[in-house]
Amino acid sequence: MSGLLKLFFDLLPPVTLSGKAVTLGATGGFARHALLLESVLRSFISYLHRITVSIRVYGAKPEWESDFERITPRARRAGGELARWTQLLQCHNTDVTAS
Question: Among 15, 53, 64, 78, which residue has the least CB neighbours within 10 Å?
Fold first, then answer.
């Protein structure tokens, strides 16, 4: 994991994301940078015993510079799934850290 990202997570108290669903999103220069979401961030969030929603949102430089319409539907789907998980966790008062 990059040093800056690790520093960010080191600053968070351990209970910050407790019982929360998380969606992953990022931007980068090239499409292959989307692998960061799956190979590094998802495994790290899972290590913290959090639920990651299945839809990831990644925008490469060409998308966020000129073709933002391609990112918007993915972001809306991810937001909808995150809202459903959040509602489910609140309704059932589920402790996702107990595994």
Answer: 15
CA distance 17 to 71: 25
80 with 57: CB under 8 angstroms? Answer: no
Q: Which two tokens stand for residue 28?
A: 């980068």
Residue 55 identity (one-letter amino acid): I
φ, ψ of residue 26 to 5 degrees: the values are: -160, 165
Scan for tokens 């391609």, then name that residue. Answer: 70
* Under 8 Å between Cβ of 20 and 41: no
The Cβ of residue 59 has, within 10 Å, a number of other Cβ atoms equal to: 21
Q: Full-prediction pTM beyond 0.85?
A: no
pLDDT tens string 41-69: 887 777 777 778 888 888 888 777 776 77
Task: Give the tokens for residue 37.
Answer: 């979401």
